[in-house]
Design brief:
Blueprint (H helix, E strand, L loop, with lengths): L1 E5 L3 H13 L3 E5 L2 H8 L6 E5 L7 H10 L5 E7 L3 H10 L3 E5 L3 H13 E2 L2 E2 L3 E4 L2 E4 L4 E4 L5 E3 L2 H12 L7 H9 L7 H17 L5 E5 L3 E5 L1
Parallel strand pairs: 1-2, 1-3, 3-4, 4-5
Antiparallel strand pairs: 6-7, 8-9, 9-10, 10-11, 12-13
Helix pairs in contact: 2-3, 3-4, 6-7, 6-8
């Protein structure tokens, strides 16, 4: 899953990003409101950590823009301890949670985990399933339910497979995959994706799965099973 951290204090942003990456999240950072809004509007993020006090555009203004444009990422706002008005405005504008500064990084990570596993009033498990596949999010273990064969998926392949399983039987363009898995500012080569897809297809065959990731001419790729 991909997270955007919009925080003008670069040291704080780096601490948050480093901790989230250790938790196996993909993380991008923005250090002012305009850049944060630009990145958020790509709609590739599952969650956005959004500071209220930002240069160029504040967090409340960003929230309004995101909601008006139907950006569906979960939003956790960061606000000063005395900023009750900011908290209320944040919730009124569509924020899902808030953390006050100064904060313990462990608390923030816990709140991130809660938001990303929440679906309606239910809590998602650490398992993604599609057809005969079961992917353990915590251990990166892929299992074929028909054969009971398992294999551990390397990091980048895991991100790619997770994205496909969360968008099962939908056509996903190359651009969407690049932005989601490699990041909007990454320097990638077009053959990187083909290579990783080839690795994934081989692993699916190794564990005996009937699931396949097919190329859809001029459109992208689609997971079927």
């Amino acid at each position: 899953m991909r997270i955007l951290v919009v925080e003008d204090e670069e040291a704080i942003a780096d601490i948050i990003a480093t901790k989230l990456r250790r938790e196996k999240y993909e993380v991008d950072t923005s250090f002012d409101g305009e850049d944060g809004l630009y990145n958020a509007m790509t709609n590739i993020y599952d969650l956005i950590i959004l500071d209220i006090m930002l240069p160029k555009m504040n967090g409340i203004e960003i929230l309004k823009e995101l909601k008006e444009n139907n950006i569906n990422a979960k939003i956790i706002i960061l606000t000063a301890k005395s900023g009750l008005d900011d908290k209320l405005k944040g919730f009124d504008t569509g924020a899902n949670d808030y953390v006050t500064k100064p904060f313990h990084i462990e608390e923030l990570i816990a709140r991130v985990n809660v938001q990303l596993r929440a679906k309606g009033n239910k809590i998602e498990k650490d398992i993604l399933e599609y057809s005969d596949l079961s992917l353990n999010i915590r251990t990166s273990t892929l299992t074929c339910l028909e054969t009971s064969e398992s294999i551990t998926i390397p990091y980048r392949e895991f991100l790619l497979l997770e994205y496909f399983m969360n968008n099962r039987e939908q056509i996903i363009s190359k651009e969407q995959i690049y932005d989601k898995v490699w990041g909007i500012d990454s320097d990638y080569e077009s053959n990187n994706l083909e290579a990783y897809l080839s690795f994934l297809r081989k692993k699916l065959k190794v564990i005996g799965s009937k699931v396949n990731i097919k190329a859809v001419r001029n459109l992208g790729y689609k997971m079927e099973g």
